[in-house]
Predict the 3D structure of the following.
Amino acid sequence: MKKTILTLSAATALLLSSCMTTGMGTTPTTTTSTNDVLGSVIGAVLSNVLFGGQSGILGTWNYNAPSTAFTTEKTLTNAGGNATVANMNSSLASNYNSMGINRSNTSFTFLNGNTFSAKVNGIPFSGSYVYNPQNGDITLKTPTETLKGNVIKTQRGMGLMFDSTQMVNLLQKEGKVSNAAAVQAVSKLAQSANGARVGFELTK
């Protein structure tokens, strides 16, 4: 059965408070109303937010904000819907800030020939990737890890998300994040609801 992902962009995390940052460690970004943001992304499933081919993901993408997704509409509904996503993104933003993750030190570059380079928390790594434009699945292979995730098209750019285990491996084994408490908090967020995926919204 074709897997679908219902995504709500990390912009929802910005709606909780004018004092809340996006996780970039910078000044808050001006936001629209909750209804405007949620209305533009609610109901968007993976088949409607694909890049239309591998060429769509090529280039350098920098961290912009947290991103949360659910594998199906049912898993999102069972998890509590929009409020849950907003709360998860808010918690992700706080923990990413604690780790020191920001736009200048976290990025992914996807090249022709299925190679990629990246840095998370300023730590560089590289390898090969396999991207399936039919369902948004992506596999990143480094010398030490194989990370399986999902790519979606967001309002601002790209969402790159993983389940709990894969996200921990990305943060600790590739990004060498030393804040174990923050990494564990991110892991628990991904485990808190069936079908949850957590990660980064990336922009060019």
